[in-house]
Design a protein that fits this description.
The chain is an alpha/beta fold and 400 residues long. The chain is globular and about 70 Å long. The structure holds pyridoxal-5'-phosphate. Pyridoxal-5'-phosphate (PLP) binds next to helix 4.
């Protein structure tokens, strides 16, 4: 499957020997996305939403079409539920600050998990300091997934928000939201899902997930950096105050007071990431042209192949083997620092990630400071995995 897909990614014509295994950090960009961005800057550019001239109104239409495209892509009620931000991080900060500021106070609790990226931990700590609520974390299981039973047990009358990852950027495990979402809604607790890792690998359906907020970043789904998406359930548009003030988010401004715009505009202050949104629209076209379930199976097959070979090596430790998981293989080699492995692999044009993966509480929980991580995207193939494994064996011999 996807035999000639590398041809669509210009980096491979410049670097034919590249083995890129860091898609979980950020994906490579197909030519269609790159071209949409350069064409927009070259031939279509002006500010959106403001100009009466056709250059601006044409680009505004194209920009707003991306909102509809995203809405369909994640099966949201309407494009009106889609807010553009500069990143998933900004989207989470927006929800955390506006919700905490309005609804959280001393004695309240919010629940995250040990599996979260710092983007879904630190904003909560910052708000907890300001508004005095408690941050509670659900445990994880041996297989690297959220301990749903523990999480459900931690929900009580003080719980005012639940914020969890959809697919872990370290263990790759996919959270099953069925019971979590049901219990949250039975108890009137809003649910945020961090979809950064899930969005480009498996179909996302916010209606089925029944979440209040869903966030992701453009750069992880073959699109540009500098744009993020926040899906927000209708009722929150009225209940939350704006996050930032400035142009575009207003209704009337007088010298001593402001009234705000309604809907997504209320949360989009200033000039939006115009060209990034256009690029993101093209990356969704790219994904729609390649069935997401096929992409998932392709990446999972590569993962399974690598996992099988690596788990038979007696000096390899693999973190995360949940049944429901994506193509993320996090590992360590006994007695070798992961950075040393990455540096030797880089000499063979193999790009893997090492470090704490912005998940220090998880690292502490599994008793390591850092790990190596190979993560798969649509452009990887079996040959990439073979080169990676061969080089890994050579690196081990060399470093030992
Ligand atoms: C699970 C998860 N959440 C949040 C983020 C933050 O995304 P960004 O840095 O694009 O805002 C990442 C990025 O690595 C991630 O993997």
């Amino acid at each position: 499957m996807f035999e000639n897909i590398k041809n669509q990614f210009p980096v491979y014509s410049e670097k034919p020997n590249l083995v890129f295994l860091d898609t979980a950090a950020s994906s490579l960009k197909p030519i269609s996305v790159i071209k949409s961005i350069s064409d927009c800057y070259a031939y279509e550019y002006s500010n959106v939403h403001r100009g009466l001239y056709s250059l601006s109104s044409n680009l505004t239409t194209k920009f707003e079409n991306v909102r509809s495209k995203i809405s369909k892509f994640i099966n949201s009620e309407s494009e009106e539920n889609i807010i553009f931000t500069k990143s998933a991080t900004e989207a989470i900060n927006l929800v955390v600050e506006t919700y905490s500021n309005k609804f959280l106070t001393e004695d309240d609790e919010i629940i995250i998990s040990y599996l979260e990226h710092h983007a879904n931990i630190v904003p909560w700590h910052m708000a907890a300091k300001k508004y005095k609520f408690k941050v509670i974390a659900a445990e994880i299981l041996e297989d690297g997934s959220i301990d749903v039973e523990d999480l459900l047990n931690k929900i009580n009358s003080k719980t005012k928000f639940i914020s969890l990852v959809h697919m872990s950027n370290v263990t790759g495990s996919i959270t099953n939201f069925e019971q979590i979402s049901k219990k949250a809604h039975d108890n009137n607790i809003p649910l945020l899902i961090d979809g950064c890792q899930h969005i480009a690998h498996k179909t996302t359906n916010v209606e089925e997930l029944n979440c209040d907020f869903y966030v992701f970043s453009g750069h992880k789904l073959y699109g540009p950096s500098g744009v993020g998406v926040l899906y927000m359930k209708q009722k929150w548009f009225e209940q939350l105050d704006p996050y930032q003030g400035g142009g575009s988010m207003i209704d009337v401004v007088e010298i001593d007071k402001t009234s705000y715009a309604q809907g997504f505009q209320k949360f989009e202050a200033g000039t939006p990431p115009i060209v990034q949104v256009i690029g993101l629209g093209e990356s969704i076209n790219f994904l729609n042209n390649h069935n997401l379930e096929d992409i998932f199976n392709h990446e999972k097959n590569l993962y399974d192949y690598a996992y099988e070979k690596m788990s038979s090596m007696n000096d390899v430790l693999i973190y995360g083997d949940a049944i429901q998981k994506g193509g993320i293989l996090t590992f360590n080699i006994k007695n070798i620092h992961p950075n040393d492995i990455a540096m030797v692999l880089d000499q063979n044009n193999i790009a893997i990630r090492t470090g704490h993966h912005c998940a220090q509480p998880l690292m502490k929980k599994i008793g390591v400071q850092s790990t190596a991580r190979a993560s798969f995207g649509i452009y990887n193939d079996k040959n990439d995995v073979d080169i990676f494994l061969e080089s890994l064996n050579k690196a081990k011999d060399f470093l030992k």
